[in-house]
Amino acid sequence: MEKEVVIKIVDRHEMDGDTDGLETTLLGKFSGDRDSYVLSYTENGELEGCQVSLKVENGECITMTRSGMFETELIIQRGKRHNCSYSTPAGNLMLGVFAQRVESDMSDNGGTLEFDYTLDLGAGVFSENYLVITVTPA
């Protein structure tokens, strides 16, 4: 059953020794159960209007799909590296994605999804990323 939820995203990333972050709160949807679920929402800001879906399987593999003007699919799976297509306002990239940590504590009443991953471009790490997504009933 799909439910309306409030999704708070805290994103921190490190690139070339500089740390930057973003915090945003959006209305979205939650469907599924404790271990396998989907969070979906519409982006705002620079990617406004893009639809985002985070499909979490077995609490350890996240497939993030963004559709609209900037289409992307990232597979974020603990302990595994995936090559993924990433579209930005500056152009399309093929990135390597490696997750060191994926932790999910989700229930019908909300919860938290946390994950740390690196993005590599060519032969080196491009950025280190840390996300905390908190879901509460709308």
Number of H- or I-type helical stretches: 0
Q: What's the number of extended β-strand segments?
A: 10
User: What sequence of helices (H) and strands (E) makes up the elements?
Assistant: EEEEEEEEEE
* Global Rg: 14 Å
| Derived structural class | mainly beta
Q: What form results from the Cα inertia axes?
A: globular
Q: What share of residues is helical?
A: under 10%
Largest beta-sheet details: 10 strands, antiparallel
Mean pLDDT: 91
Residue share in β-strands: over 45%
Strand order of the largest sheet: 6-5-4-3-2-1-10-9-8-7
Low-confidence stretches: none
Query: What's the N-to-C terminus distance?
Result: 15 Å
What is the structure about, briefly put?
The chain is 0% helix and 76% strand. It is mainly beta and 138 residues long.
